[in-house]
Amino acid sequence: MATTSPTELQNFINGSYEAPADGQTEPVFNPATGEVIAHAPLSTAADVDRAVKAAHDAFPGWAAATPGERALALLKLADAIEEHADELSELESDNAGKPINAFRDDEIPFMVDNLRFFAGAARCLEGRAAGEYVSGYTSIIRREPVGVVGQIAPWNYPLMMAVWKIGPALAAGNTIVLKPAETTPLTTLKMAEYAAEILPKGVLNVITGHGDPTGRALVTHDDVNMVSLTGSVDTGKWIARTAADTLKRVHLELGGKAPVVVFDDVDMATALETIAGTGYYNAGQDCTAATRVLASKKVMDDVVAGLAEQAQGLVLARHHARAAQLGPPARAGRGLPRAPA
């Protein structure tokens, strides 16, 4: 970040920033340097309740908006993210340790395209006639928004995962309370700030904090109608069990492994490039990263030697360096910070 003093972050509720109810915050680190770059709210159940109330109150108006109106809002948000690509890239690079060019060149275009896709999808939802089963009546399927959606995003793609969550939910007429990972909240809050110029108050709310108590309060809130998580298998299991008590709908994208099988007849150059590219991209912090390689005995030695050579060719540098492919290295004499428990 350009400034040296930490930014004092606040929750974004009902169209504006709000301090946490009890004033408690925690440091947010630049993983390349160990520097504290911000302080983020440790939101309580009271903060969650305020955000959910804002989303609940905004829901009738947003649900009644025409598909064209919702589509236009998403298109404007896509334009805003594209317009502020440099600012977002610096924030994400400093907060998540990503090579800045990888975020600007790969993630920004992808999330902009996603929002534009869902803007189009908002105008293509249809009811389907089911037929006449009772004389004088026609049964149809009517698609309606669910209500308030509580969303929990991870730290490996902080803004891109947030966009993946808000795009379809907003397109369908739902309102949102989104909790980014406690370690990487900067870009999500900044996006909410842009969205406040586009969306009605309360449609998109962002609160920060840990899984407990913030995430727990969000998942168990009576006025949250659906929960969406990208996170661990254990957390997903807990959400599924908890949501069952109130019949909340759930959307779970959970952690996994992506094995690669290498057979004897493989084109070795292509295999090595692909495995290295998918395994090391984003420092391997990806649910589809090539984390297991199962190679036949005949090609095993070639695979091991080739992947070592691929790794040696990667550029490990500070995240703002133009040539950086992996980052960040810790500053000499300092370890990486450990997130508070």
Report on this structure.
Strand 6 and strand 7 form a beta hairpin. The strands form five sheets. The protein has a five-stranded parallel β-sheet, sandwiched between helices. With 341 residues, the chain is α/β, with parallel strands linked by helices. It has helices at residues 45-64, 67-83, 85-96, 100-121, 158-171, 186-195, 211-220, 233-246, 268-280, 297-312, and strands spanning 7-8, 11-13, 16-18, 25-29, 36-41, 128-131, 139-141, 148-152, 175-179, 204-206, 226-231, 249-254, 259-262, 292-295. Helix 1 crosses helix 7 (211-220) and helix 9 packs across helix 10 (297-312). The longest helix is centred in the first third of the chain and has 22 residues, at 100-121. It is built from ten helices and 14 strands. Helix content is 43%, strand content 17%.
Beta content: 15-25%
In which range does the helix fraction lie?
40-55%
Global outline:
globular
Low-confidence stretches: 330-341
List SSEs in N-to-C order: EEEEEHHHHEEEHEHEHEHEEHEH
Average pLDDT: 90
Please summarize the sheet with the most strands. 5 strands, parallel
Number of helices: 10
Radius of gyration based on Cα positions: 22 Å
How many DSSP E strands?
14
* Measured distance between first and last alpha carbons: 25 Å
The order of strands across the largest sheet is 10-9-8-11-12
Give the helix/strand class: alpha/beta
